[in-house]
């Protein structure tokens, strides 16, 4: 029977609220520019265009209360607070009407971005990985089961940095709803249990510095606290 040449890395996982069980993370999908006001602040047209996606690696997940080490090769790291959907079922070509059946629960996440490196990649028409998929770039709080909280479609999405409000939005401002996102993703990839979907950030994104304390909340879902190391 074949064996590994060396011990494989540990399974990336996210805490599940109210239990000692862990959610095994498979892939981390993110949707871009899913709030009109954020699209405007990034210099884009806020009209409803087809959604686009990028990915982060599962080992970039950082738990609630963790320390986010300020990454190398950048001087402009931005915060982006988001609701995260966690899937316990998968499939291809999922119909919007069936999409929420795939959802295990919801959490609060941060999509940290090396904005200067992302901007350079955009200018050169290169992939975004160096700006988005770096180490510890996907903090994620404990998952609240959908069986307990339902499927939130409205509620404040906020971020405070050192006690000062930076981002404020609402889930009802999403350009693309979660069923639309899941259906769209399933036409591009075969979704599977363990997939996480970061659903987009409201306006107010901005830089962080070492020593900052970030406190994010999604009403009806939970909270996430991260310190920049």
TrEMBL record:
<protein>
    <submittedName>
        <fullName>FAA hydrolase family protein</fullName>
    </submittedName>
</protein>
<dbReference type="Pfam" id="PF01557">
    <property type="entry name" value="FAA_hydrolase"/>
</dbReference>
<feature type="domain" description="Fumarylacetoacetase-like C-terminal">
    <location>
        <begin position="28"/>
        <end position="228"/>
    </location>
</feature>
<keyword id="KW-0378">Hydrolase</keyword>
<dbReference type="GO" id="GO:0046872">
    <property type="term" value="F:metal ion binding"/>
</dbReference>
<dbReference type="GO" id="GO:0018773">
    <property type="term" value="F:acetylpyruvate hydrolase activity"/>
</dbReference>
<dbReference type="InterPro" id="IPR011234">
    <property type="entry name" value="Fumarylacetoacetase-like_C"/>
</dbReference>
<keyword id="KW-0479">Metal-binding</keyword>
<dbReference type="InterPro" id="IPR036663">
    <property type="entry name" value="Fumarylacetoacetase_C_sf"/>
</dbReference>
